[in-house]
Design brief:
Organism: Candidatus Amesbacteria bacterium GW2011_GWC1_48_10
CATH architecture: Orthogonal Bundle
Number of domains: 1
Order of helices and strands: HHHHHHHHHHH
Distance between the termini: 31 Å
Helix content: 55-70%
Bound molecules: fe (ii) ion
CATH topology: Hypothetical protein af1432
CATH class: Mainly Alpha
Structural class: mainly alpha
Strand content: under 5%
Shape: globular
Number of strands: 0
Oligomer: single chain
Radius of gyration: 15 Å
Protein name: Metal dependent phosphohydrolase
Amino acid sequence: MITRDQAWQLLTSRMQNRNLRRHCLAVEAVMRALAKHFEASAQKWGIVGLLHDGDYELSKDTPAKHTLLMHAWLTEMGETDQEILSAILSHNFVHTGQNQPANYLEWSLYCSDELTGLIVAVALVMPDKKLSSVTVEAVLKKFPQKSFAAGAHREQIALCQEKLGIELDDFIALSLSAMQQIASQIGL
Ligand SMILES: [Fe+2]
Ligand SMILES: [Fe+2]
């Protein structure tokens, strides 16, 4: 299995945009916390989070290629861990037409991908723009406001209940805490 150092090297060699890298770091942190919740491998789940959008700069104009490029790069590097390869593919099944999320790892990525965006947006409207000022209540308040951070798909986040068995407020609390622990790395 690819190491965290190798994954970071791969990510930063293919992705230059600072905010995109920060998104990947945020999802990594949440995925590690979710792995602990499910008593799974934090290292593996973290790598899935870190690399899930690694090809985005090269695929943003061709959504059907998003995740397929990363899948190819990892395979070329000798990665054989099917859980990692499948999970990365699964978060873009809407555009590739393959690999709908099918397990806790994959649904965790699918739900946390969008929630991290919502939490960042809430941090940015805090007076000090800091993650440390964000509360679960503040995120819940913005949750039904569809025009706020419209790109953070609420129905995708809300699947945490059905697919992960985690209530929305608990899912927000877990994710917010994980992101707060790496706040300086993501500039918040
Ligand atoms: Fe993506
Ligand atoms: Fe993402």
